Amino acid sequence: MKKIFGVLLLVFSFTGCSLKYDNEIVTKDKTPEFIFEKPALTRVENGKKTVIVGAEKIEKYKSNSVFYASDVNFETYDNQNTVEAKGDCGLLYANLDSEVYELFDDINLYSKSYNATFHANVLKWNGKNEQLIGSQRDTVRIEKDDTIMFGTGFSASGVSGTFRFNGTVTGEMKSE
């Protein structure tokens, strides 16, 4: 026992610890200002419902317009109050200032304008240029009418109403 204590004393004397007490650690940017548990949020613009979001948890940070959410489901509405898009995902990053939304983990997204359902693990939506982009390595599955496509390097344009794959594409088509 004396040998172990002696070795530990020797180790601690040669491997001293140096703490810098003069450096202030800023944690306000890393600590959520608000945490919402199981919220159901509705955004209304000009008296019309535009978005409904539900989640297990949403964190809002003080320093910017950034939100993080887990187990998210959402619906967006057009001017006629009909569902334009709906979906769910495991994790969501949302920056309201830049209109960038990143979805992760088991994403299911239905788009009325494409009349298609998209399944992926990583998708990024840029609201300013209306671009939906998948990860280069992630396989995106699209179900449209009687066609199912799988591909990598996915991107879609809300402006032109088109989508494409830059990588490998496979699929199946049913005909009756």
Tell me about this structure.
With 176 residues, the protein is mainly β. Strands 1, 2, 3, 4, 5, 6, 7, 8, 9, 10, 11, 12, 13 and 14 form a 14-stranded antiparallel sheet that branches. Strand 6 and strand 7 form a beta hairpin. The longest helix is centred in the first third of the chain and has 13 residues. It is globular. The N terminus is likely disordered.
Q: What is the radius of gyration?
A: 24 Å
Regions with pLDDT < 50 over 5+ consecutive residues?
Answer: 1-27
Classify the helix fraction into a percent range. Answer: under 10%
The beta-strand count equals 14
Gap between N and C termini, in Å?
82 Å
* Beta-strand content estimate: over 45%
In DSSP terms, counting alpha (H) and pi (I) runs of 4 or more, how many helices? 1
The overall pLDDT average reads: 82
Order of helices and strands: HEEEEEEEEEEEEEE
SS-derived structural category: mainly beta
**Main sheet summary:** 14 strands, antiparallel
**Principal-axis shape:** globular
Question: Quick recap of the structure?
Answer:
The protein is mainly beta and 176 residues long.
SSE diagram, text form:
Layout: H1 2-14, E1 32-37, E2 40-45, E3 48-54, E4 57-61, E5 66-77, E6 83-95, E7 100-111, E8 116-126, E9 131-134, E10 140-144, E11 147-151, E12 154-157, E13 162-165, E14 169-173
Antiparallel strand pairs: 1-4, 2-3, 3-5, 4-5, 5-6, 6-7, 7-8, 8-9, 8-10, 9-12, 10-11, 11-14, 12-13
